[in-house]
Give the backbone structure.
Amino acid sequence: MKLTTFKYFYPEKPRLLSIEQPLFQRLSDHNSFVAEKKYNEQRLELHCNGSFEFWNRHEEKLNYAPNDELMDALNRVPLHGYCQFDGGLRHNKVPGIKHKIMIYDVFIWQGKLLIGKPFWYRRTIIENLFQINGDPLGIPEQFPNNFHKVFFDVIKNDPEIEGLVIKNKAGILKLGRNSAYDSNWMWKVRKPSGRYAF
């Protein structure tokens, strides 16, 4: 499907997972899965078609204007045609963190809707556009294994990190027109609430 004008698609919702569940270890041991940091952020759909529009996961346009540094970073991305990215707006959720975006996925690339494409394919697109852990605009580092150690390493000293999102590299993109689907290839693992001491 070729798209040239704005269309809103609801992003998939990762399923909740605890580090104590056996599935957590099975995913860690399987080479088909990667883990990414889960930031304390606002879910963002970034629409790009000659200009940039910022939308949330509830089909609402955000009242947000990037600062000059972020706007310059956005304008340097080599985009052609209508593109739509899934990301996180890191702005005023954590003290001292403002005007930053982390891009996690791409839904529409140069007018082509990527429903049915695997995550590894979509990740390749964004890797060619954005720097890993880039600031103020980037994509997240991926961790290929040992998710238990990664989980505690990433939440230990960074108040902006809430946990991990675990993704199947072969995960097929599904988008909703009226509501969000529960994902069958993404899991969200949250920071524990006071049970663990560091």
Remarks:
- Residues 13-190 form a domain with the D-amino Acid Aminotransferase; Chain A, domain 1 fold (CATH 3.30.470.30).
- Residues 26 and 87 are 27 Å apart (CA to CA).
